[in-house]
Write a structure and sequence with these properties.
Elements: H1 2-7, H2 12-17, H3 21-27, H4 34-63, H5 65-81, H6 89-116
């Protein structure tokens, strides 16, 4: 049951930040091109997840499914909470990119474990 919950984490990444995008854009109205960069806060995890999937698949096979799943889940939690500490758009984008890397690990490892079981 926990593996199915881990596989559903992909839906948490965009849905938690989407309602806050207007407030984030209002907070950074003084930053040049803030209206351009703010939507990337929503899409960055999925873009990075798609780009990192081949490398993550290799890591899951090389390092083991469970260890990658545990490390990626921990990184997902830390990078997800980083939004409370950052105060720049670049900081948001970097934390969301790290979230995408961790999300790639969680989804790849959990899918492989579901297939194994």
């Amino acid at each position: 049951m926990a593996l199915f919950g881990a596989a559903g984490m992909a839906f948490l990444a965009p849905s938690t930040v989407a309602p806050a995008l207007p407030a984030i854009a209002a907070q950074f109205v003084h930053v040049p091109d803030a209206a351009l960069w703010t939507p990337f806060i929503l899409t960055m995890p999925m873009l990075i997840m798609a780009l990192m999937a081949p490398l993550t698949g290799w890591m899951v096979d090389r390092l083991g499914r469970r260890s990658v799943l545990l490390a990626a889940t921990l990184g997902f939690g830390v990078s997800g909470l980083a939004g409370m500490a950052v105060d720049t758009i670049a900081g948001f984008l970097v934390s969301r990119a790290i979230l995408g890397i961790c999300l790639s690990g969680v989804l790849t490892a959990s899918s492989a474990l579901i297939g194994d079981y």
